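Incident log, entry 3
Record: Cl-channel voltage-gated family protein (441 residues)
Problem: checksum mismatch between cached and fresh output.
Input:
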Amino acid sequence: MRVNDELILFFTVLKWLFIASLIGCLVGFVASGFILFLHYVIEQSNHYQRIFYLLPLSFFLANLLSQFVLKRHLGTDTLIDAINKHYGKLEGSFIPTKVVNVVLILATGGSAGKESPCAQIGAGIGSVCANLFRVDDADRRKMVLCGFCAGFACVFGAPMAGALFGIEVLAVGVIFYDVLLPAFIASLTAYQVSSALGVTFFYYPLTFIPAFGQGFFIQLLAGGLFFGLCAYTLIRAIRQSTAFTNSLPLWRPWKGLLGGLILVGLTLTFSRDYLGLGLNLMEDCIKGLQVSPYAFLLKALFTIITLSISRSGSVITPILFIGATAGSFFSDLVGADQSTFAAIGFVSLLAGTTNTPIASSILAIELFGATVAPYAAVSCVISFLMSGHQSLYASQRLVIPKSEALAAEPGKPIGNLKSSGQPTEIQLPAWLRRIRLFLKR
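Fresh output:
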C-alpha cells in the first residue's frame, strides 16, 4: 500500500504535537515546583541580613555532598554531550542531583543561577518519556531535546528564545531544523504551565527609539565589540579559576570553606548586591537607574569564585546580570541611553559566552519588545564573533568556524580545540598571500 508523503508528514506532525505537549506539561509542572520552592527559600533567607556568613558552611556542605553522595550528576555540559554523542541517553539518575547544592548555595547568597537544574529536570523527563514509549535513538534525541528546551523556557520566561537556546547551544554553526517544531511546542507548553502555576518572569518593554543621526550606530558597533571582549574574558577567567582551584592540594570541602570565607570578606568590603541572583539590581539597570560603574566586574568576581569553588549552581543568570551592568557602564562611557544598552548588554553577553546569537536576539524581542530588537541582534552577532572559539560549555561542538581565517577542526567539542593560549595559524586568502610574497622579495 502506497501512502502519500503529505499524509506521512501529517501524522508525523500529529505525533510530535502530542509528545511535545506531554513533555512540556510535565516539565512545566515539575520545573515550576522547583522554581517556586527556590524563590521561597531565597525570599525567606533575605529576611536575615547576615545570612551570607553561612556561605563557608554551605560551600563546605555542597562540596561534601558532591564528593561523597552526589557522585553521578548531570550538569548542563554533560547534557549537551549526551545529546550530541549518545542520542540523549543519560547516564545516572535523571533527577537533578545538584538541586540540593543549588538551594544551599543560593539560599546563603552564592552568585549562581537556576537554569541547570531546570535543564536537568527537562532532559530527565524527556528521557523517561522516551523509555516509556520505547522509541528509537533518533526520536529519543528529539524527546530529550524537547525537555531540555522546555526547561530553559521555564527559566527565561521566553518560550521561543528558550527553545532556540536549547537547540543552538548544542553546536556552533548549525541548527537542527527537524526538532524545531517539537521544541517550540514543548517550550510554549512549559511556559504556559509555569505562568498558570504562578511563576513570574522578568519582562520590561523599552520605549526608547534610537536616532542614527546622533551616532547611535557607531556606539552600537563599539558596544558589540566591548561585550564580545567581556564574554571572552569571562570564559577564560572561569576556566583558569576552575583549573587553579582543582590544582590546590586541599580536600575539596576545605576548598569550599576557604571560598566561602573569601566571599564573606568581599561582601563586607563591597556590598550584598552581588550575592544571589541579583534580580533587583539587574532590573534597576534596565529601568535606567544609576548603579556602580564597576558592578559588572564585582559580579563577575563573585560568580567566578562561586562556580569554581562550590561546583554547584549555573551561570546564565549571573551572565545576564553582568551583561546588564556592563551595558550600563558602557552607556555612561559613551553618553548613550542607559536602558537601551543595559538591555543590549543583557543579551549580547549571553550570545558571546554561549555562542547563541539567534536565541539571544529572540530573547531581546520577548523581554524588551521589538523596538530594540534589531540593534540587539547586531550587537549579539558581533559579541558572538568576538568571543572566538570559546564557550562556557566545553561540550558544545564547533561545526562551522566563525572565520575561515582561523584554523579549527570542525566537528570537535570546543573544549577539545587547541588552547587559545597558543598561537593560531591564520589562513590568508590567496591574493593576500601573493602580496605577502611580493613584499618579501
